[in-house]
Amino acid sequence: MKSTSHQSIRTILDGLFDAYPRRQRLHDEAAAVWCLQLDHLPAKVLQSAAWEWVDKNMWPPDAVTKFKNFAASRHKGRSKEPDPPGWAEHVASRHKENPKGVYWCERQQTMVDVAGTPMPQHPDHRRTPEREARVHMRLIRDILDRRLRCPRSVAHHDIWAHEDREETWYRNEFRKRLG
């Protein structure tokens, strides 16, 4: 069996870990260990395992053995363990949120799939309309100039929080100004 190159394994791992927004990247030394542990598996098996991992798990693999066993079980075709109750609904709702499995990659500043392959660019696809952009800029300027403040009961300043009360407050202020 042909072994997979460490560069292609590293690309797959980068795509896997970039799919999770709060996850830090693997250090070079850690990535080298992962590459040594995974180089016996074909690249296509690793790509499909990475895709399936992101599709079914909310968190990235925290140990190389977990991902190695996960990928190896897909490679050997072993029957997998039964899913816990409610898992199918969770996967279906996650698939509804992101049906194409496309993720933003900070390092490359572009949209990539799980394997780290850049997605085709659509210049008008992610563009904010000019009127909304102006409203956002005025709102941000007012916040920075301290003319507008978030209520203390809402302000937690957690930059990693997603859809928290502070963000909801900002969206409501935006909608008020947009009219």
Describe this structure in words.
With 179 residues, this protein is mainly alpha-helical. The protein folds into 2 domains: 6-112, no CATH class; 130-178, no CATH class. Helices cover 51% and strands 3% of the residues. The chain contains 7 helices and 2 strands; from the N terminus they run H-H-H-H-H-E-E-H-H. Strands 1-2 form a two-stranded antiparallel sheet. Helix 3 (43-56) crosses helix 4. The longest helix has 15 residues, at 130-144. The chain is elongated and about 60 Å long.
Task: Describe the structure in brief.
The protein has 179 residues and is mostly helical.
Mean pLDDT over all positions: 77
Rg over C-alpha atoms, rounded to the nearest angstrom = 21 Å
Summarize the helix and strand pattern as letters. HHHHHEEHH
Approximately what portion of the residues adopt beta-strand conformation? under 5%
Number of helices: 7
The unreliable regions are none
Number of domains: 2
Strand element count: 2
Distance between the termini: 63 Å
Task: Give the overall silhouette.
Answer: elongated
Q: Percentage of helical residues?
A: 40-55%
Strand order of the largest sheet: 1-2
- Structural class, from helix and strand content? mainly alpha
Main sheet? 2 strands, antiparallel
Structural key phrases:
2 domains, 7 helices, elongated, about 50% helix, about 180 residues, 2 strands, mainly alpha, two-stranded antiparallel ribbon
Set out the fold topology:
Layout: H1 6-18, H2 28-38, H3 43-56, H4 64-76, H5 87-97, E1 103-105, E2 110-112, H6 130-144, H7 165-178
Antiparallel strand pairs: 1-2
